[in-house]
Input
Amino acid sequence: MFEKGELIMCGGHGVCRVVDITGNPIDRLDKEKKYYVLEPVFEKASTIYTPVNNDKIVMRRIMNKEEAEKLIAHITEIDTVWIQEEKRREQTYKEAIRTYDSKSLVQIIKTLYQRKRSRIDEGKKVLSSDEQYLHKAEELLYSEISLALSIPKENVEAYITEAVDKQNI
Output
């Protein structure tokens, strides 16, 4: 169970803060069921109520500073996940985004960067679906790393690039 004030990744909403743990917001007579009251960190306009024991939505603590630094230190070792069959490839992307697995998000980002570069070099357009998955994977990963390392989200990509470049020297 998460505690009030904790930052978590919550299915479909990205990084959220646990604002409260309360009773059922719809059925006030239901005293048994507990709910998290969540506030998305990067989208202040909404409040989310989800059961504490919700097994349909992935919820996990965000990575800490050491975990974020370790992930960045090993980015060059993380392989891409190119799958020729479009439906299977898209399913792989969806699953990584749904589970918020940081390593899988890195795989998607690396794969789609390479694919984007390759298509541009061949004079082809970048597929809008690739752009959407790339944007979503970056948004999720960079949001989490931003909070773990206490740096602005817009600086995360440059931070990672600089760290990877230093490793390759």
Q: What stands out?
A: Residues 7-60 form one domain. The chain has two domains: 7-60, 63-167. The longest helix spans residues 128-149.
